[in-house]
Design brief:
heterodimer, A: 135 residues, alpha+beta, Beta-Lactamase, five-stranded antiparallel β-sheet, 4 helices, 7 strands, 35% helix, disordered C terminus, B: 1045 residues, Immunoglobulin-like, six-stranded antiparallel β-sheet, globular, AP_mu_sigma_su (chain A), protein transport (chain A), AP_complex_ssu (chain A), membrane (chain A), AP-4 complex subunit sigma-1 (chain A)
């Protein structure tokens, strides 16, 4: 099960966040800061899956932007890892070369469509299908 | 037509972006005029969090004004919502906008409505009360002729919907399953999946329709239904065996590339769909040869097709392997899967290696041979620079541990443990080590040493079962009396040597274990006698020591020898944590050497104090920084600790001569020790390894349970409890009197050495700096309500005699204020010659309020009075759990109140805490107390009418029925109901004939309904609630009161 989906840049600014379990707002900020700290402490040679508290973080770095997904133990880490990339590819298609700011500016758009919905299969930008369980 | 719908939906975000997207490929593709754009840009430009906060607060203020203005257009409102979403995402609450989001969803045009729905789904949570206001809008949109509106309504339902309102929309959504547009059908399935998640009972009747969805000609609808199936099959695989064929066919089609190419991801057909199907097949085929038979072919094909080297195929392969090892085994497939795992493990790609280790961990119990094949890789991973890989390897080793390799594996785990900082890792690892040690320990010495290491590192955080089990083991022993003795003796000896190490810090739990072990051993009499000869003080029970400690301030006794251990133990005992057993004093330590004993006391005492004064109870890391004296250098201590554990490990392993180096020969040797005993039995391991190893240290039956409990209760000596319904507040009087008697004896007997006292003072003053910080922080917290209301007005002329009267009148004035609330009587919780703490529960309509009264009985000022409630998982204190009064004047009373909420359901649970204070410059004195809270403290009547009752009744999924016998007097139904009303605070909704309906809710707002039917000496109780466990708890309470009356 996916618990949350985050896009945070190296400075720790949240670009996009979606929680699939209710977490209080102030706890979110603390969690996000801690998550990005954990991700930044890892080198490129290290594995992209982190055991964090009682769940796992799967992260991928695109330039200065980290995409981090929190999952529980039932998920297939590699599938989530690729799911992140699929998401980025879709954004990339939509914006024709996506940048970090695009995500923020079109926050609404990103929410409206793509994986941010609890939608296992979503047709988006006419071409890509994302079929991933969101909960 | 469906294309048109799809296009419209796809175009929506584009429409939205039109006014901001400037199109070009430059970095900011957003026009300057867009308010969201400029907001984001200015935030990005800021450098500090503080500036960001200022900016957002400004933004929120202006947004608040805008959304509240009557002339704000929906179009503007939509724009405000987007900015609110952004602010909230950055962590700034914008609850003022929630209601407007709902309004926007209700009133806006398509795009505005969509934004409204989106904002609702991001702002609110499942139990938010405002969500109910959305239901009507959803119902209206579901009935709309505009498909886009229907889609939006279905989407919001699949994201967030109040459980109790499901019946209102369920028929409408069911209809949509037959809709001609696939997107509508798909979204309907998703909405039903949501219902299945939150209230499975309510969608049971549509199972047939789910089957239709599974066979839908549209892939999207089929894929959506798989989520429901995965969940249902997980719960009850046997009910869906007949669908195995369908799932296999679907997977075959997917793998064979029969799906539209749109579903491909890097030319792999619908990978996530494949994973989902593989999981379902694994669940269906588990322990079922016939079903498994059906899946062999397609699994083989999946393995074959997934040969492309791409991450996503690895994900599929991993799932294949998992499934192959889950279902009834087929040798050929196992072989292929094993080869696959080998490829993963040997891969230079780190993520793949991780996946390989995870797979290996899963299959290892069935196929230990595989571990043998990859033993060298595993050993390399054990020294991998990435701690995540290391940990996964340890997890793997944990699964293959046996009596022969246990010491090596445990050693590796301990090594890792010493490097980890994170609490979660320590807790889980410590638990595993303790389990392995108990199961496979090769000898007494090893066992004790390992457990010592476990307690040293994990003492503060470990699961309380670990010390409890360990102590029970020591106490009950095994079959061989002789060996028991040896084990115990060895344990004591090891503790003595540990305690002799200077400047060593041990966690409190470890000290408790040590002291418990000591007290229970009668054969140590020799030591004790020797100790007494050398001038050590005799054993004193816990409470007595406490009294001594309290009296330290007044009576300074200068005697040559100190009671070297008492203060340590009592200070650690006072931290509010329950020891596994009553703390008893070890006197033989002082017997060994008064001097070392005293030094230990210094460091140990600081350890105790450290726990006491952490800001939230205790925070070891922070405290380390606070320690500034030479005695307290944290690094030095840590290293001694590590050294010390290392020493133990070294000692333990000297015989095995194990040194890990890069040399291959060494690795080989390690391999031979690690994987010993794995191969021999592996030939017949296909059907799963039978665990023939019995626990080495097997516990005897639980005879000692009661004994343990007894001891614990004596430890809690100043704990009083009251049931919320009993009105006998001073039933503990006798107990208190005897306590006072003991106190007198304690004073006379007091034999505290000057040396010790000095050291005690020294260590106090060391921590004081930190304490001052603490207190200043405390005093910043807002003053309690009662302080404002000048509750300390009472100053009676004869303080010592009338302090009680003072308290009473104070209470009465307090209660006058809270007259409209039901409250308990005032109950005394703890008491000494200086002060008294009492408490009163006030059952307010919306919360449980605990009022603590602290009475200073003495003629001295009490300083730095600090009241702290120990936090537990069961309760949530809404305020800060601690409270500090800088000064309490002589003979005055202070009160504090805490709002308590129930976090986890329970019948009865203790809430404990302590008060600490200073008199003049004397050391801190501490008193512990605890108060019992019951479920009923959190139950309130729910005043609803019969009609609402009916509606609610139907909407609740969780029910519990029970018939109970009732006495003759209760056969009169109104009388029985009255009992429930009075004792359980249930609201009587209606009485119809021999049936009664009642309603209550658990604070803050979990409703529970009761239907009661009296018939021939029996009462049929039927509970329904939105919470699954509440009915059971209430049933128990009902039975209790019915039996009593």
């Amino acid at each position: 099960m996916i618990k949350f989906f985050l896009m945070v840049n190296k400075q720790g600014q949240t670009r996009l966040s979606r929680y699939y379990e209710h977490i209080e707002i102030n706890k979110r900020t603390i969690l996000e800061a801690d998550v990005i700290k954990t991700c930044l402490s890892r080198s490129k040679e290290q594995c992209s899956f982190i055991e964090y508290k009682d769940f796992k973080l799967i992260y991928r770095q695109y330039a200065a932007l980290f995409i981090v997904v929190g999952i529980n133990e039932t998920e297939n880490e590699m599938a989530v890892y690729e799911f992140i990339h699929n998401f980025v590819e879709v954004l990339d298609m939509y914006f024709s070369r996506v940048s970090e700011l695009d995500v923020s500016f079109s926050i609404l758009c990103a929410y409206l469509h793509s994986t941010m919905q609890r939608v296992p299969v979503t047709k988006w930008a006419g071409k890509y299908y994302l079929s991933y369980p969101e909960s | 037509m469906s294309d048109i719908v799809e296009k419209t939906l796809t175009a929506l975000p584009g429409l939205f972006l039109q006014h901001q997207a400037a199109g070009g490929s430059g970095v900011p593709r957003v026009s300057v005029s867009s308010r969201l754009g400029s907001l984001i840009r200015s935030i990005t430009a800021l450098t500090s969090k503080h500036e960001e906060e200022k900016l957002i607060q400004q933004e929120l203020a202006s947004l608040k004004a805008t959304v509240a203005a009557p002339n704000t257009t929906l179009r503007l409102m939509k724009e405000c919502m987007v900015r609110l979403i952004y602010c909230e995402m950055l962590g700034y609450e914008s609850s003022f906008g929630y209601i407007h989001a709902i309004k926007l969803a209700q009133q806006g045009n398509l795009l505005e409505k969509r934004v409204g729905y989106l904002a609702v789904s991001l702002f609110l949570h499942e139990n938010h009360e405002l969500l109910l206001l959305l239901v009507n809008t959803v119902v209206k949109d579901l009935q709309s002729t505009n498909l886009v509106e229907v889609c939006m309504a279905l989407t919001i339902v699949s994201q967030i919907f109040p459980r109790e309102m499901i019946p209102a929309v369920l028929p409408l959504i069911e209809d949509k399953l037959q809709h001609s547009k696939e997107i509508i059908r798909r979204k309907a399935v998703q909405a039903l999946y949501k219902f299945h998640l939150i209230a499975p009972n309510q969608v049971q009747h549509i199972h047939v329709k789910f089957r239709k969805a599974l066979c839908d000609r549209d892939v999207g609808v089929m894929a959506a239904s798989l989520h429901i199936y995965l969940r249902m099959i997980k719960e009850n695989p046997s009910a869906y065996k007949d669908l195995t064929g369908s799932f296999v066919t679907i997977l075959k089609q997917v793998v064979g590339g029969k799906l539209p190419v749109d579903f491909n991801y890097h030319s792999v057909p619908a990978p996530w769909l494949q994973i989902q199907l593989l999981r379902i097949l694994g669940l269906l085929g588990k322990d079922d040869p016939r079903t498994s038979e059906l899946t062999y072919d397609v699994l083989d094909e999946s393995l074959r097709r997934a040969e492309l080297s791409h991450n996503i195929t690895y994900a599929i392969l991993f799932e294949c392997v998992h499934t192959i090892y889950t279902i009834y085994p087929k040798p050929e497939l196992l072989e292929k899967a094993a080869r696959c795992i080998g490829k993963f493990v040997l891969s230079p790609k780190i993520n793949l290696k991780y996946l390989g280790l995870k797979a290996l961990t899963y299959v290892i119990q069935q196929d230990p041979n595989l571990a043998l094949q990859h033993q060298m890789t595993i050993i390399e991973c054990l020294d991998h620079p990435d701690p995540i890989i290391k940990r996964e390897t340890l997890e793997l080793l944990y699964r293959i541990t046996n009596a022969q390799n246990v010491s090596v594996i445990v050693q590796k785990m301990l090594e890792y443990l010493q490097q980890s900082k994170e609490e979660y890792i320590i807790i889980s690892l410590v638990g595993k080590i303790a389990e392995l040690a108990e199961k496979y320990a090769p000898g007494n010495e090893w066992f004790i040493q390992t457990m010592n290491a476990v307690f040293s590192v994990g003492g503060d955080v470990m699961h309380p079962d670990i010390p409890n089990n360990f102590l029970r083991l020591l106490a009950e022993g095994f079959d061989d009396e002789n060996e028991d003795k040896q084990l115990r003796l060895y344990a004591v000896q090891s503790y003595l040597s540990l305690l002799e190490i200077e400047n060593a810090l041990y966690p409190q739990r470890f000290l408790q274990v040590m002291s418990w072990v000591d007290a229970s051993l009668s054969f140590l009499d020799g030591f004790v006698a020797e100790g007494l000869d050398q001038g050590a003080a005799p054993y004193k029970p816990h409470h007595q020591r406490q009294e001594e400690k309290l009296s330290q301030g007044k009576v300074l006794n200068f005697e040559p020898y100190g009671l070297s251990f008492s203060s340590t133990m009592s200070s650690s005992g006072c931290t509010g944590r329950q020891s596994p057993a009553g703390i008893s004093l070890s006197s033989d330590v002082s017997g060994n050497s008064a001097e070392t004993g005293q030094k230990e006391t210094n460091s140990l005492k600081l350890e105790g104090v450290k726990k006491l004064w952490g800001k939230e109870g205790y925070l070891p890391k922070k405290e380390n920084k606070a320690g500034s004296s030479p005695e307290l250098q944290p690094i030095a201590q840590d290293s001694t600790l590590v050294e010390n554990v290392d020493q133990m490990i070294m000692k333990k392993d000297q015989s095995q001569a194990l040194h890990h180096s890069e040399e291959e020969a060494e690795k080989q040797r390690l391999a031979s020790t690690l994987f010993v005993g794995l191969g021999s039995e592996s030939a017949v391991s296909l059907l799963g390894k039978t665990d023939t190893v019995s626990h080495k240290f097997r516990r005897k039956s639980k005879i000692n349970d009661t004994k343990n409990r007894e001891v614990t209760s004596t430890h809690n000596i100043n704990c009083s409890s009251f049931s919320p319904l009993s009105n006998a507040p001073y039933e503990d009087n006798d107990h208190l009197n005897s306590f006072q008697d003991k106190e007198d004896i304690g004073l006379k007997k007091c034999s505290l050495g000057s040396e010790f006292l000095e050291s005690g003072l020294k260590s106090e003053s060391l921590t004081e700096l930190h304490l001052v910080e603490n207190f200043s922080a405390c005093s910043l917290s807002p003053p309690s309500l009662f302080e404002d209301n000048s509750m300390e007005i009472f100053h009676p002329p004869h303080p010592t005699l009338s302090s009680f009267a003072n308290e009473i009148s104070l209470t009465s004035s307090l209660l006058e204020e809270l007259n409209e609330h039901v409250h308990s009587d005032l109950v005394e919780l703890c008491n000494n010659e200086m002060l008294k703490v009492s408490s009163c529960k006030i059952w307010k309509d919306d919360c449980l309020l605990l009022v603590w009264l602290i009475v200073n009985k003495s003629s001295l000022e009490l300083k730095n009075m600090n009241l702290e409630i120990t936090s537990t998982e069961n309760f949530k204190i809404l305020e800060h759990p601690g409270f500090c009064f800088p000064v309490i004047e002589a003979e005055s009373t202070k009160s504090i109140q805490h709002h308590v909420q129930m976090e986890k359901l329970f019948t009865e649970e203790d809430l404990s805490g302590c008060v600490k204070y200073k008199v003049e410059e004397d050391p801190y004195i501490q008193l512990e107390f605890s108060i019992t809270l019951s479920l009923l403290d959190f139950i309130r009547p729910m005043k609803i009418c019969t009609e609402d009752f009916g509606k609610l009744w139907l909407s609740f999924a969780n029910d519990v029925k029970q018939n109970i016998k009732i006495s003759d007097s209760q056969a009169n139904l109104p009388f029985a109901l009255k009992t429930l009303q009075q004792k359980l605070r249930l609201h009587i909704v209606d009485i119809i004939g021999n049936e009664g309906i009642l309603a209550c809710h658990l604070l803050p707002s979990v409703p529970c309904l009761l239907h009661l039917r009296a018939h021939e000496g029996m009462a049929a109780l039927w509970f329904r609630s939105s919470c699954s466990t509440l009915p059971d708890y209430l049933l128990y309470q009902c039975q209790k009161v019915m039996e009593e009356s």
